[in-house]
């Protein structure tokens, strides 16, 4: 005997085909009620190769006490700016989670998202406060007060071009540093005073470079 599956609104689920009878579904964005889905993309300034190991070049801190920030995708790219590198280690970039983040970072450009960055105009303004999203200009960001996890949740590796005969590309455009939009696993969910940083783990000596960073996230009451 056939079994019917009925949705919350009373609609009976459909199946496809005549052999395998796969359940027909339609992917939808994460439910956000009065909050929303958001995206940011921006550029660092011209960064020196002399950045110390594990220098932070992007930060996102979530300070809201009752709602959650669901990180869906983070991409990064980088290229030589004005000076090619000396031979040495490859360019290493990672993403690391923070907890107990009670004081925001410093330096660089502290962003003011306010009513911007919405995926849809009718969505609520982001709950990320001014200065809690920050991108480096010409030096590493100040860490603020937080506890960095000792292991990375995302990492990419790129060459350090050492001659002008190369095209200067370090990390190709749109390189994924973190992606869980398909919900095959569990996304990075930030509660109060949690966040993540993108770090310049190591770069060769001498050269200068610029990075582009983009982040997609949702803000929800529950998850």
Instruction: Identify low-pLDDT runs.
Output: none
In one word, what is the shape? globular
Percent range for helical residues?
Answer: under 10%
Distance between the termini: 36 Å
In total, the number of strands is 15
Order of helices and strands: EEEEEEEEEEEEEEE
Structural class: mainly beta
The largest sheet is: 7 strands, antiparallel
- The tally of structural domains comes to 1
Number of helices: 0
Overview of this structure, please?
The protein has 223 residues and is an all-beta fold. Helices cover 0% and strands 44% of the residues. It contains no helices and 15 strands. It has strands at 15-16, 22-23, 36-43, 47-48, 55-62, 68-80, 91-103, 109-110, 133-135, 145-148, 154-158, 169-179, 188-190, 194-202, 208-220. Strands 5, 7, 8, 9, 10, 11 and 14 form a 7-stranded antiparallel β-sheet that branches. Strands 3, 4, 6, 12, 13 and 15 form a 6-stranded antiparallel β-sheet that branches. A two-stranded antiparallel sheet has the order 1-2. The chain is globular. The protein starts with 14 loop residues before the first strand and ends with a strand.
Brief descriptors of the model:
single chain, 223 residues, mainly beta, 7-stranded antiparallel beta sheet, globular
Q: What does this entry show, briefly?
A:
The chain is an all-beta fold and about 220 residues long. It has no helices and 15 strands.
